[in-house]
Each structure stands twice: as C-alpha cells, then as structure tokens.
Amino acid sequence: MREQLAFSAEDLQSALVGLRDYAAEGFIISTCNRVEIGGLLPDDVDGPATLVGFLASRHSVPAELLTPHLYLFTGEAAAQHLFRLAAGLDSMVLGEEQIQTQLKSALAAAQQAGMAGQMISRLLQHALAVGKLVRTETGIARQHLSVVSVALDIARERLGELAGRRVLVLGAGRMAELALKHLRGEHATVTLANRSPERAAALTASYGAATLPFAQIEQGLADADVVLSCTAAPNYVLTADMAVRAMAGREGELILLDLAVPRDVEPLAAAVPGVRLWDVDSLQAICDTNRATRAAEVNHAEQLVAGEVAKFQQWWNEQGVVPTIRALRGRAEAIRTAELQRTLSRMPNLSAQEQAAIGALSAAIVNKLLHQPIATLKDHRDGELVSAVHELFQLGCAK
C-alpha cells in the first residue's frame, strides 16, 4: 500500500499544486517508509476525509481501501505528531537524522508550490527546531541512527567485516550519499551506478568510489558481495532472474539491501539459493531493539516535545483571535485619541511636556484595561467569547 501511495520527486510539485483544490495550505512528506499529507482546512470542514479524498484521487485508489492503513491527526495532535517525527521518535530507526533533511525538503517544495503560508511554514519550522533541540538535549541520536547504517550493520554481521568486500550502491540520492559516507574508511571496494552518469560521477568523486554504467548493473550484481539499492525507479531494478544469473558458479552469499520505496528488488529474489534479501519492512525488528535500549532518552525527548507542542499551540490559538485583538486595540485607541484631543483643545496653556504626560497617562490606562481581556482571548480560543467581545465593544462583523 505504501508503494502505491508514494510520491516521486518528479511528481511532487504537480501533487502539491493539486492539493490546492483541497486545502488552503499544505505539504507532502514521502520517504522510504512513510507518506504523509498535511493540510490547513477550516474548522467546519472534515479535514481528514478531505485529505484522504486527495490521496485516493491522486493515486486512483478507492478511499475505503486506504482508510484501514491510515493514521489521522487533527489540531494539537497533528502538531505533536509532526514534532515527534522531526525528533526521530516516530521513525523506524529511533532518532535518525535524515528526517530533518526530508522535512526541510517538504517545506521547500511546499513553498515552491505556493502551499506554505504563515501557518504551515511556522509549523514545519517549529518542527525542525524541535528536532534539533531533542538531538542536542538527549542522547537519542547516539550510535547508528539511519536505515542505511542499520542495513550495513546487517552486511557486516553476515560477512564478518566489509574490508576487502565489493559493495555496489544503486542510486545517487540522499540515501546513496549517506551509504557512501558510512562506507568511507571501511576499506571496501565501492561502486555506484545511477541512471544519470553526471550525478554518479559527481557523487563518487567526493567519496573515492568507482562508477558503473547503469546498463551494466547485472554484471555489477554478479561481482558484488553486497548491493545497497535506493533508487527512485517505479519498477524493479533487480529481478529474481538477475539474481539467479548472478549466483551461477559463485560461492558465498549475496547480500541485497533494498531501501527503496517502491521496492528496487523483486521479492522473489529472496528465494534464490545464496541470496539474502532485506527490505525496509524487514529492518523493523532490529530498529525496535534499538528503540528499547534507549527508553530513558525517549522519555526525556517526549517531555521536550510536549513542552514545544504547548508553546506552538499557544501561538496557534493566538492567531485565531489576532483580528479581534487588533480590532479591540484599534477601537480603544480611536476612543482614547479622540478624547485626548478634545481635552487638550480645552487646555491650550499646557506645555508640550504636560500634554505628553496626559497622553502617556491615557495610553497606560487603556493598556491596563485591555490587558486582561486580551490575555483571556489568547488563552481561550472560544468562538462565543470572541463574539461577545465583538458585540460588547461594537467591533463590527469581522472576527
């Protein structure tokens, strides 16, 4: 299901433009193990159903088939989920940092599509700040904290070590670059293949790896001990038949690490003798173990997230009453100014200093009178309260 709902990099802008028909502001996160749609919709609209409708329509999947596989968050719960996500608490690999880059990309894409206004921009920027805070204040990001590093740990366990081994990396995106970073210093023979020779050359030049024409990946498969595949291809890059040919006449295991969504490796390849295949889902048990060993850090991180959610919710609530507060201040200031001018006109002998003192006094009185009503409006985003303020102070219809 996740594969059916994934958004490719090429399709993302078009999808965000399409999201305009469903939400005033919004964003899309599509990674190797999650697809998320965020949207800003009016309170009187069924937001979750609307966004499910977008997802179903975009991928031509009936909404009733999607619903059992979805999680839905609204209001404060949506902010909490996003903050936990940025902190690495909702990632398959606890504390992994790649989600920060993915969130930055989601924000940039939403801005490019004109879908990140004040509210969504503030939400995502605050989420990124929470992610940084949690990683700074806790030890949640210690040790190996990415799907790539966990996958390579598996290869080390199976092969003893990677020194002297031949590793083939397929793809040239962020995950492929992360793999090259982890492999640097392993003393392995690393080769990278990508459909764009220019991108492959630029990446391998930075990490001292070799390049292989993408058309020759079957030969690379036959020569490799480990294949880490993370392309954005819509179909299988490595098939079971290719695995059969690669194992012909060779000794030892062939480790296939499929980190792509949609999958790069045909699942039937796992049935080929000598082939060991791990995909994103099969890494879950290992990641769960990592999570269990960091329970104390998780508790600390959850507390930090809760505090930041409260701060964000206060800001969010204030935005709903800002027009009312602005109108209330404007009404009070208009009355103050009119009365001040009327009073000063009757006292022409006052010095400029005395006039300024009276003006300051009137402003102070107004500010003190408004302080508690404004504070109450900020603390309680209540439609009836807002309506009462408009009626009491004759602020007009705009709320």
Automatic annotation (TrEMBL):
One of its GO terms (biological process) is chlorophyll biosynthetic process. Pfam families: GlutR_dimer (PF00745), GlutR_N (PF05201), Shikimate_DH (PF01488). Residues 154-286 form the Quinate/shikimate 5-dehydrogenase/glutamyl-tRNA reductase domain. NADP(+) binds at residues 171-176. InterPro entries: 4pyrrol_synth_GluRdtase, 4pyrrol_synth_GluRdtase_dimer, 4pyrrol_synth_GluRdtase_N, GluRdtase_CS, GluRdtase_dimer_dom_sf, GluRdtase_N_sf, NAD(P)-bd_dom_sf, Shikm_DH/Glu-tRNA_Rdtase. Pathway: Porphyrin-containing compound metabolism; protoporphyrin-IX biosynthesis; 5-aminolevulinate from L-glutamyl-tRNA(Glu): step 1/2. Its EC number is 1.2.1.70. Residues 1-138 form the Glutamyl-tRNA reductase N-terminal domain. The record marks 81 as: Important for activity. Keywords: Chlorophyll biosynthesis, NADP, Oxidoreductase, Porphyrin biosynthesis. Residues 301-395 form the Tetrapyrrole biosynthesis glutamyl-tRNA reductase dimerisation domain. It comes from the Bacteria. It catalyses: (S)-4-amino-5-oxopentanoate + tRNA(Glu) + NADP(+) = L-glutamyl-tRNA(Glu) + NADPH + H(+). CDD domains: NAD_bind_Glutamyl_tRNA_reduct. One of its GO terms (molecular function) is NADP binding. It is an enzyme of class 1 (oxidoreductase). PANTHER family: GLUTAMYL-TRNA REDUCTASE. Homodimer. Belongs to the glutamyl-tRNA reductase family. Catalyzes the NADPH-dependent reduction of glutamyl-tRNA(Glu) to glutamate 1-semialdehyde (GSA). Possesses an unusual extended V-shaped dimeric structure with each monomer consisting of three distinct domains arranged along a curved 'spinal' alpha-helix. The N-terminal catalytic domain specifically recognizes the glutamate moiety of the substrate. The second domain is the NADPH-binding domain, and the third C-terminal domain is responsible for dimerization. During catalysis, the active site Cys acts as a nucleophile attacking the alpha-carbonyl group of tRNA-bound glutamate with the formation of a thioester intermediate between enzyme and glutamate, and the concomitant release of tRNA(Glu). The thioester intermediate is finally reduced by direct hydride transfer from NADPH, to form the product GSA. NCBIfam families: hemA (TIGR01035). This is Glutamyl-tRNA reductase. It comes from Kouleothrix aurantiaca.
